[in-house]
Amino acid sequence: MAAYQKVTHMLYPDTSVTLALFANVESCKNLRKCVMEGTVEAALLKTAMIVDSFQVLVAANKAIHLYHTKSMMTKNVHSEILYCLSPSKNISESFRSFGAADGETSVFVAIVNDAEDRTLKKVTNILGREPDSLDLTSTLSDKKLIAKTYRLTDDELSTFSLLDTLVSRVAAKEIITAGKGQS
Amino acid sequence: MESRKLLKQGAEAKLYLHDFYGRPCIIKERFQKQYRHHTLDSMLTNQRIKSEVRANLRCRMAGILTPTIFMVNFQDNSIYMEEIQDPITAKQYITDMSAQGDSSSLLMLAEVIGQTLSKMHAGNIIHGDLTTSNMLLQGNPSNLRLFLIDFGLSSFEASAEDKGVDLYVLERAFLSSHPNSQELFNTILNSYQAATKNIKSCKEIIAKLEEVRMRGRKRTMIG
Ligand SMILES: Nc1ncnc2c1ncn2[C@@H]1O[C@H](COP(=O)(O)OP(=O)(O)OP(=O)(O)O)[C@@H](O)[C@H]1O
Ligand SMILES: [Mg+2]
């Protein structure tokens, strides 16, 4: 399992996040069930919405910071990663747009504080696959859907890389979507 | 964080160089002013950070270059953003090109500044602190990339008055940073007008600029 990435948080050296991509699986059904039941603690992300592992890292970095400063909007750090990735203020809509669904054949997994990679090993067992190279992330993304979901402007898309656009959007979410109705 | 390197100590903010998971990063940390009321001060600081990040993103949506935002930390009032590589401030650039007598490079810069500010105002973004230090340049003279930074005093206004004042703030800063450069500033204004599609609103903005100039002159005559 050389493909995944384990990164220490820049502000909290005791906290890490593991990022892993499973590019070709039969389904996400069993894995999702384990997460619902709480036997696996991880964020299961829809690969269509991810252009680069750095996008997830920015969301995880933020979620962990919000966890440590007791300012999360959702109930745990893994659901907070999903919420941070999403441009929506609506929690269930965020889960729907950014969470992997049962029938999907790929999944991007983010795990906070995975001691001795135990959770990643569980995930690997459940999926019956080893993680793939994170470099494959962009090949699985749906750029049209991403542009629509984040409401990216043409000016923005022609001026910046898609990744940098999303990074700014994730980092500034609560500031740019302050009031309902204004955007 | 030990790996922070102090880059600049300003009146309201400290800038550090850092690394954000492998990307060159600048941390802009606003600090408390000792003489100001504490609660009021943290409200103001919070407001500045929000204004800065909001206008940065609104500019991007309008196709204006700004540093990518990596993180906002309300705990210590800091913004983590992309470090623009090998930048030169417009201020330094104008000083250098003037010293070299390179007027064609100066004209090309004035064009870019005018176009960028026109785009910004078309998006109803008021910068609030337009100076040549708050414009970072990259690239070669005929293909300059202009980044706008330092949006702490920004706001969103559609009125010709606010846009005219924004230009006036720049004019004042421009003429004090770059003596004998009224002509160059006029080139910026011409390029601003040429780039602004809404001709009626553009005329109003320039009229407001002239009005504010007059007020400014009267004030200096009396004071
Ligand atoms: N993202 C960046 N990349 C590279 N250099 C930067 C960046 N942000 C700021 N700088 C450098 O630091 C200087 C000061 O930055 P900035 O204008 O944001 O702060 P400031 O003027 O101290 O803020 P304030 O006006 O609130 O006092 C800039 O003129 C520029 O040289
Ligand atoms: Mg400045």
Report the principal-axis shape of chain B: globular
Largest sheet: number of strands, sense, barrel closure of chain A: 4 strands, antiparallel
Structural class of chain B: alpha+beta
How many extended strands of chain A? 4
- Kindly report the average pLDDT value of chain B: 94
Mean pLDDT of chain A: 95
- Uncertain segments of chain B: none
| Cα end-to-end separation of chain A | 42 Å
Please give a quick description of this structure.
With 183 residues, chain A is an alpha+beta fold.
Quick tags:
heterodimer; A: 183 residues; alpha+beta; B: alpha+beta; 5-stranded antiparallel beta sheet; 3-stranded antiparallel beta sheet; binds adenosine-5'-triphosphate; binds magnesium ion
Tell me what the structure shows.
- The complex is a heterodimer of chains A (183) and B (223).
- Chain A is α+β, with helices and mostly antiparallel strands and 183 residues long.
- Chain A has 9 helices and 4 strands; from the N terminus they run E-E-H-E-H-H-H-E-H-H-H-H-H.
- In chain A, helix 2 crosses helix 3.
- Chain A is globular.
- Chain B has 223 residues and is an alpha+beta fold.
- In chain B, the strands form 3 sheets. A 5-stranded antiparallel beta sheet of chain B has the order 1-2-3-5-4, covered by helices on one side. Chain B has a 3-stranded antiparallel beta sheet with strand order 6-8-9.
- In chain B, helix 2 runs antiparallel to helix 3, helix 3 packs across helix 5 and helix 4 packs across helix 6.
- Chain B is globular.
- Classes of the chains: A alpha+beta (183), B alpha+beta (223).
- At the A-B interface, helix 2, helix 7 and helix 8 of A face helix 1 and strand 4 of B.
- The structure holds adenosine-5'-triphosphate and magnesium ion.
- The site of adenosine-5'-triphosphate has 22 residues of chain B, from strand 2, strand 3 and strand 5.
